[in-house]
User: Which sequence fits this backbone?
């Protein structure tokens, strides 16, 4: 910014804007400091002046046009907005959340949610096929054994139960290893964050910051594990039923 | 009423468009305590007949009654339960569970039946002693000779006091001396424990051991005679 205006600290700069009387208000300021933001766009967007100076320049006297509030927890936004609407006279104050003021960002975030959903869908479908494949292989490899067990008097239902127990153990081990790996990687990256500087141009366009800090939400962890387990057991029913349906003769003839 | 009653059993296999009539109306009645050989050339339907008597395979028509249970009216689960408690099998290829020791293989059936560990142990050991395998309890099938493996299989088949033991060509993989030994063991068990044995064979030497000989040819019983011992 400073380069573009060929200026530097200590020199003067004149700002102009429409004032409250719909005329051009202007005022000269001395540059006392500069800031660096994650994104160049942010730097271009803002110049900070004192409240008094701004009120003078825009002939606002003691009034202010807008008050922004940052709330520590973003999930509280709607509730705080509601409380403020109740607390302030509606004729004087309008209360808007950032979602209402930035519909584009809002739409973008919804789209992003859909992308995430599709991504999960793809991953889980792939996982389902992986499990069916593994379990089917494990079943077909042992068709003779199952045939023998049936000939000796093992009930079909016991075989279904056996195969399901096996994939259950497989799932327990798989999710345990998966969880440990993901906790470790998140833990390792949460300190420094994931630096996207090399993709900075793209990241800026997307309006996200250059460093992403991964975090774990217990709800996500529980949901993911639950989905994996239920899906895993559901898709194992097919190989299990397959193992139980073979007649002992077919199975023993199988080599 | 005999322990096995088969009336007009028919079974046809379909191999693509070709139909193979494996059984064309077999009638059989076998009494408790018998020692029966089902004999006939290869392809005459012996295996099919034994599988049907054991509920491993269903006939196209005809009725099978084993130990007063009519197979027609039974679900697969009930058939499995009948096999578990009333039918023992000895297969040509031994079919022991390779990861279990001789003792554990014999115990396995009783494990499925839900017998307590101590009783399983004691009965399995006693039956292995009966078939001449004392001291080999802990050997895996791979560490036993063919004849010894088949003795374990016989022990497994009779340990739960079944109504019948079905043995499909039990000596086909054994040399004649070992085969003789196995038949002697089966005969002893038949006499000592009153277990009904039904075994198939196409070997004359094995037929000579039987007290009753049922001759199959092209899916029909062509001869059925008792031998005076
Ligand atoms: N699974 C099968 N599919 C088609 N044909 C079969 C099958 N099993 C047996 N057969 C045919 O049925 C006939 C009787 O077979 P089987 O009962 O095995 O005779 P055996 O045991 O006396 O040699 C034979 O002609 C055999 O080829
Ligand atoms: Mg055969």
Assistant:
């Amino acid at each position: 910014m400073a380069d573009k205006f060929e200026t530097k600290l200590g020199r003067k700069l004149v700002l102009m804007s429409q004032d409250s009387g719909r005329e051009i208000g202007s005022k000269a300021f001395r540059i006392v400091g500069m800031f660096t933001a994650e994104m160049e766009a942010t730097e271009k967007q803002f110049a900070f002046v004192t409240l008094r100076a701004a009120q003078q320049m825009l002939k606002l006297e003691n009034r202010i046009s807008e008050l922004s509030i940052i709330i520590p927890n973003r999930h509280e936004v709607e509730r705080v907005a509601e409380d403020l609407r109740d607390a302030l006279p509606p004729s004087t104050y309008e209360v808007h959340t950032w979602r209402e003021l930035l519909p584009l960002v809002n739409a973008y975030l919804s789209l992003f949610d859909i992308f995430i959903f599709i991504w999960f869908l793809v991953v889980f479908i792939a996982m389902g096929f992986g499990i069916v494949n593994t379990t089917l292989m494990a079943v077909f490899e042992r068709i003779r054994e199952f045939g023998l067990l049936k000939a000796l008097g093992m009930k079909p239902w016991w075989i279904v139960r056996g195969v399901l127990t096996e994939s259950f153990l497989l799932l327990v081990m798989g999710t345990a290893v998966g969880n440990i790996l993901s906790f470790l990687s998140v833990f390792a990256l949460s300190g420094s964050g994931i630096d996207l500087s090399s993709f900075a141009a793209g990241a800026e366009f997307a309006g996200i910051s250059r460093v992403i800090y991964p975090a774990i939400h217990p709800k996500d962890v529980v949901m993911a594990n639950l989905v994996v387990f239920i899906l895993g057991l559901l898709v194992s029913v097919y190989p299990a039923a397959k193992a139980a349906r073979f007649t002992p003769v077919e199975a023993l003839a199988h080599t | 009423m005999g322990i096995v009653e088969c009336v007009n059993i028919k079974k046809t296999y379909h191999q693509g468009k070709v139909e193979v009539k494996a059984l064309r109306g077999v009638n059989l009645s076998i009494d408790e305590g018998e020692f029966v050989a089902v004999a006939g050339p290869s392809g005459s339907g012996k295996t099919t007949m034994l599988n049907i008597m054991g509920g491993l395979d269903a006939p196209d028509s005809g009725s099978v009654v084993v130990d007063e249970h009519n197979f027609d009216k039974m679900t697969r689960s009930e058939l499995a339960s009948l096999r578990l408690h009333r039918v023992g099998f000895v297969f040509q290829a031994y079919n022991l569970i390779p990861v279990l020791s001789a003792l554990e293989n014999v115990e396995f059936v009783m494990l499925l039946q839900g017998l307590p560990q101590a009783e399983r142990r004691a009965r399995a050991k006693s039956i292995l002693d009966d078939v001449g395998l004392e001291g080999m309890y802990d050997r895996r099938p791979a560490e036993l000779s063919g004849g010894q493996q088949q003795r374990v299989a016989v022990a497994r088949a009779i340990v739960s006091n079944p109504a019948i033991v079905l043995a499909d060509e039990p000596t086909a993989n054994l040399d004649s001396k070992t085969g003789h030994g196995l038949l002697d063991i089966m005969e002893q068990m038949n006499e000592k424990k009153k277990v009904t044995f039904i075994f198939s064979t196409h070997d004359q030497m094995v037929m000579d051991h039987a007290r009753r000989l049922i001759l199959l040819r092209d899916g029909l019983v062509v001869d059925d005679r008792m031998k005076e011992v």
